[in-house]
C-alpha cells in the first residue's frame, strides 16, 4: 500500500465510518444530523469566542494525545494519562500557590516543570513495575487513575481547601501567575479576540511540545531507540538497546506531557485546583493519538478535531435535545474504528491496491 | 462495634460483592481464553441500563434481565469481532466499548424517558426482591446462628445466590470438563489447540459470549436489585474493581470469590463510615476507596506472590500458512 493511503486514506475512511454511525445515532434519537453539524460548526468555529473554546479544549488534547503517542512508539499503552494529568494539576497548583513568582512567564516555566515532574513521577511507578517486575502497564495505569482520584480528593478536602470553604478546591492562585489569554495576546496585534474564551498562552506551549516530540522521535538517537524497541523488542535488544531504559524513559516523557496539560486547565482556565479538573481529557488523548497515528502533526490535527467536537457538542447540548454524552459516543466510535477495527478498514484497501498494481504490471 | 453492626456490614458486603463477583467470573472466562477484557465496566453499564429500561416499560424484571444480558452480549460480540475476527488490539477495543456504553446509555435514556439520563424508579415486579430462605423466621430467635442465617444468608435477591453458585460451576467447567481444558489451553497456547484440530476462533467466541452473559447479569443486578433503576455511570468503576479482583485471585474461581468479598467488605465499610478511627490514627474514607487498586498493584508487582496472566492473553491468534 502506498504511503499516502496509509497516512491519509485509512484514517479518513475510519473517521467517515465513525461519522456515519454518529449520524445514525442522532437520527435514531429523532434529531437532524445535518442541522446538528451546522450548529456544531457555528458553535465551535463561528466566532472568536467559539474558537477560543475549541482551541482551549484542543490544547488539553494535544498534551494528552502526545502523551499516549510517545508511549505508543515504544509499544506501551498508557491509559493513565487521566491520573497523570490530575497529579500534574497538583504539581502546578503547589507551584502557583507556594512560590512567589515575580512574573507569569517565570511562573509558567515553574508550572511546566512542576506539572511535568508530578505527572512523570506518577507514570514512573507503573513504568518501573512493567520494566522490572513485568506487571502489565495497562492494568497498573488504570489502577493508578483511581488511586490518583482518591489521593487528590483527600488532598483537596483535607489539606488544600482554604479554611471556611465548603468547595473541595484549592485557594485561588495569585494574580501574578495569571496566564495571558488569546484576547490579551492578540490585542497588541490589533486582533479583537473574544475576552470570555479560556484559550491562553498554553496553546503555544502545546504546539511547541508537538514540535519537540516530533524532533525527539524522528531526529534523535533516543527517539530511534524508542521506535526500534516498539517495532521489535528482540531486535532492539540485539542492537544493544536496553528495554528497561526505554520503558522507563518513554513512560516518564509520556507522564510529563500528560502532567503538563495542567498548565492549560488548572493554571490557565480555573486558576485554582478543583476536583475532576481533567474532565476525561486523559482518555480523549487515546482517541487523539490513534486518530493522529501517533505522529505529532497528526495529534495536532486530531486534537483540534476533538476540540471542535467538544465545543460543538456542548453547543448541541445547550440548544437541542442531543445530550453532551453524544461526544463520548463519537469518541468511542473513533477509538473503535481507528484503533480496534483498524484491520477491517485496512485489509480490503490493501487488497484493492494489490489488485491495481497487478493490473498495471 | 456490636454483633448486629458487624452482621449488617457483612450483609451489605455480600450485596456489594455480588456484581463484582459476576463481572470477575465473566472476565475469568474471557481472559483464560486469551482475550483481555477491560470492557467489563461498559458491558455492565449497558446491561444495567437496558434491564432497568425494559423492566420499567414492561413491568417484568425477568424480561429486563434478558434485555440486559442481550445488551451485554452485543458488546461482547463487538469485542469478539474486533479482537478475534479482525485481530485488533484487545485493550483498545475494551476502551472503546467502555466509552460507547457510557455515552449511549445516557443518550438513549434521555431519549426514552427524558429524566436526565436515568430510568424511572422501579418497584413491585419490575425489581428483584429478597428471597426469604426456609426457616429464616423460625430460626431468627436462636442466638448467633439465628441472626446469621436470617440476616446474612437469607433475604438476598435470587441473583446473589446465582452468583455464589456460579463459583463452583465455573470451577467445574474449567477444571473438570473438556470445554474447560480447551478453554484454558487456548489462553496458554492457541497453536497447540489449533494443531489438535479444535477451532481457536470458536473457543474464544464461546468464552467471550459467556463473559457477556455474566456481565449482563451483573449489570441487571446493579439496576434492578441493588438499586431501583438506572442512573448515569452507575457502575462507578466496578468493572475495574472486578478486573482487580481477577488479578488478585490469579485467574482462579474460588479465589475470585474471596477477593470480591474482600473488596465488597471494603466498599461496605467505606459506605457506612466516612472516617474510621483506630485509636490515635484516623483512616480517611479515600484510603478505603483506593485500597482495592493499591492491593492489586502490590499483587501485580509480585511482592505478595506473583500473578501470572494466561500466556497468550492479549495476542491475536494468526494461523500459520
Give structural notes.
The complex is a heterodimer of chains A (361) and B (321). Chain A is mainly α and 361 residues long. Chain A has a domain at 58-307: ABC transporter involved in vitamin B12 uptake, BtuC (Orthogonal Bundle). Chain A is built from 16 helices and no strands. Chain A has helices at 3-28, 33-45, 48-73, 81-98, 104-133, 137-160, 182-186, 202-219, 221-231, 233-238, 243-260, 262-270, 281-291, 296-319, 326-340, 342-360. Chain A is globular, with a radius of gyration of 21 Å. Chain B is an all-alpha fold. Chain B has one domain (3-236). Chain B has helices spanning 3-32, 40-58, 61-85, 90-113, 136-139, 145-153, 158-176, 178-188, 190-195, 200-226, 238-248, 253-272, 285-300, and strands spanning 276-278, 281-283. Chain B has a two-stranded antiparallel sheet with strand order 1-2. Chain B starts with a helix and ends in a 21-residue tail after the last helix. The mean pLDDT of chain B is 89. The interface between A and B is large, with 49 and 46 residues.
How are the elements arranged and paired?
The complex is a heterodimer of chains A (361) and B (321).
Chain A: H1 3-28, H2 33-45, H3 48-73, H4 81-98, H5 104-133, H6 137-160, H7 182-186, H8 202-219, H9 221-231, H10 233-238, H11 243-260, H12 262-270, H13 281-291, H14 296-319, H15 326-340, H16 342-360
Helix pairs in contact in A: 1-15, 1-16, 2-3, 2-14, 3-8, 3-11, 3-13, 3-14, 4-5, 4-6, 4-11, 4-12, 4-13, 5-6, 5-11, 8-9, 8-14, 9-11, 13-14, 13-15, 15-16
Chain B: H1 3-32, H2 40-58, H3 61-85, H4 90-113, H5 136-139, H6 145-153, H7 158-176, H8 178-188, H9 190-195, H10 200-226, H11 238-248, H12 253-272, E1 276-278, E2 281-283, H13 285-300
Helix pairs in contact in B: 1-6, 1-7, 1-10, 1-11, 1-12, 2-3, 2-4, 2-10, 2-11, 3-4, 3-10, 7-8, 7-12, 8-10, 11-12, 11-13, 12-13
Membrane topology (chain B): Multi-pass membrane protein
InterPro entries (chain B): ABC_transp_permease (IPR001851)
Pfam families (chain B): BPD_transp_2 (PF02653)
Amino acid at each position: 500500500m502506498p504511503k499516502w493511503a496509509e497516512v491519509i486514506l485509512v484514517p479518513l475512511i475510519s473517521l467517515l465510518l465513525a461519522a456515519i454511525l454518529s449520524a445514525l445515532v442522532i437520527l435514531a434519537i429523532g434529531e437532524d444530523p445535518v442541522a446538528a453539524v451546522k450548529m456544531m460548526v457555528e458553535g465551535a468555529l463561528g466566532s472568536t469566542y467559539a474558537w477560543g473554546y475549541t482551541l482551549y479544549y484542543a490544547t488539553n488534547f494535544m498534551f494528552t494525545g502526545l502523551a499516549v503517542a510517545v508511549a505508543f512508539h515504544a509499544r506501551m499503552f498508557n491509559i493513565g494519562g487521566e491520573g497523570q494529568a490530575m497529579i500534574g494539576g497538583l504539581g502546578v497548583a503547589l507551584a502557583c500557590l507556594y512560590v512567589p513568582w515575580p512574573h507569569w512567564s517565570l511562573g509558567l516555566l515553574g508550572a511546566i516543570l512542576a506539572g511535568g515532574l508530578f505527572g512523570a513521577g506518577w507514570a514512573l511507578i507503573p513504568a518501573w513495575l512493567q520494566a522490572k517486575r513485568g506487571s502489565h502497564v495497562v492494568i497498573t495505569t488504570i489502577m493508578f487513575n483511581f488511586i490518583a482520584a482518591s489521593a487528590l480528593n483527600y488532598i483537596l478536602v483535607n489539606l488544600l481547601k482554604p479554611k471556611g470553604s465548603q468547595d473541595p478546591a484549592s485557594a485561588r492562585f495569585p494574580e501574578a501567575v495569571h496566564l495571558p489569554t488569546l484576547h490579551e495576546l492578540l490585542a497588541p496585534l490589533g486582533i479583537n479576540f473574544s475576552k470570555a474564551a479560556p484559550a491562553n498562552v498554553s496553546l503555544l506551549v502545546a504546539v511547541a511540545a508537538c514540535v519537540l516530540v516530533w524532533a525527539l522521535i524522528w531526529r534523535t538517537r533516543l527517539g530511534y531507540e524508542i521506535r526500534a524497541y516498539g517495532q521489535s523488542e528482540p531486535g532492539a535488544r540485539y542492537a544493544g538497546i536496553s528495554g528497561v531504559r526505554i520503558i522507563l524513559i518513554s513512560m516518564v516523557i509520556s507522564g510529563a506531557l500528560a502532567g503538563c496539560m495542567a498548565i492549560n486547565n488548572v493554571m490557565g482556565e480555573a486558576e485554582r485546583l478543583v476536583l475532576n479538573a481533567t474532565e476525561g481529557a486523559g482518555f480523549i488523548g487515546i482517541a487523539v493519538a490513534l486518530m493522529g497515528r501517533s505522529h505529532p502533526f497528526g495529534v495536532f490535527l486530531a486534537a483540534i478535531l476533538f476540540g471542535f467536537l467538544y465545543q460543538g457538542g456542548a453547543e448541541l447540548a445547550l440548544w437541542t435535545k442531543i445530550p453532551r454524552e453524544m461526544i463520548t459516543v463519537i469518541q468511542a466510535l473513533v477509538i473503535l474504528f481507528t484503533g480496534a477495527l483498524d484491520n477491517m478498514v485496512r485489509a480490503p484497501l490493501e487488497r484493492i491496491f494489490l489488485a491495481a498494481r497487478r493490473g498495471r504490471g | 462495634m456490636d454483633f448486629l453492626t458487624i452482621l449488617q456490614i457483612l450483609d451489605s458486603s455480600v450485596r456489594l460483592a455480588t456484581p463484582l463477583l459476576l463481572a470477575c467470573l465473566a472476565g475469568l472466562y474471557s481472559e483464560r481464553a486469551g482475550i483481555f477484557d477491560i470492557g467489563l465496566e461498559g458491558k455492565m453499564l449497558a446491561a444495567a441500563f437496558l434491564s432497568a429500561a425494559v423492566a420499567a416499560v414492561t413491568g417484568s424484571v425477568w424480561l429486563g434481565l434478558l434485555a440486559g444480558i442481550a445488551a451485554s452480549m452485543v458488546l461482547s460480540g463487538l469485542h469478539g469481532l474486533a479482537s478475534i475476527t479482525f485481530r485488533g488490539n484487545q485493550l483498545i477495543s475494551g476502551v472503546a466499548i467502555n466509552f460507547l456504553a457510557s455515552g449511549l446509555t445516557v443518550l438513549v435514556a434521555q431519549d426514552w424517558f427524558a429524566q436526565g439520563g436515568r430510568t424511572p424508579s422501579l418497584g413491585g415486579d419490575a425489581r428483584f426482591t429478597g428471597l426469604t430462605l426456609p426457616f429464616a423466621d423460625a430460626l431468627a430467635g436462636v442466638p448467633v446462628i439465628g441472626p446469621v442465617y436470617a440476616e446474612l444468608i437469607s433475604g438476598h435477591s435470587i441473583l446473589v445466590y446465582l452468583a455464589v453458585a456460579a463459583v463452583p460451576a465455573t470451577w467445574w467447567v474449567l477444571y473438570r470438563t473438556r470445554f474447560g481444558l480447551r478453554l484454558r489451553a487456548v489462553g496458554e497456547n492457541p497453536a497447540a489447540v489449533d494443531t489438535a484440530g479444535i477451532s481457536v476462533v470458536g473457543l474464544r467466541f464461546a468464552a467471550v459470549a459467556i463473559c457477556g452473559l455474566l456481565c449482563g447479569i451483573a449489570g441487571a443486578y446493579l439496576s434492578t436489585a441493588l438499586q431501583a433503576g438506572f442512573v448515569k455511570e452507575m457502575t462507578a468503576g466496578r468493572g475495574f474493581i472486578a478486573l482487580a479482583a481477577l488479578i488478585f485471585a490469579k485467574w482462579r474461581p474460588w479465589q475470585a470469590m474471596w477477593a470480591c468479598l474482600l473488596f465488597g467488605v471494603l466498599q461496605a465499610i467505606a459506605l457506612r463510615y466516612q472516617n474510621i478511627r483506630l485509636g490515635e490514627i484516623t483512616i480517611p474514607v479515600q484510603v478505603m476507596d483506593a485500597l482495592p487498586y493499591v492491593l492489586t498493584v502490590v499483587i501485580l508487582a509480585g511482592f505478595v506472590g506473583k500473578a501470572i496472566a494466561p500466556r497468550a492473553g492479549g495476542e491475536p491468534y494468526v494461523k500459520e500458512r
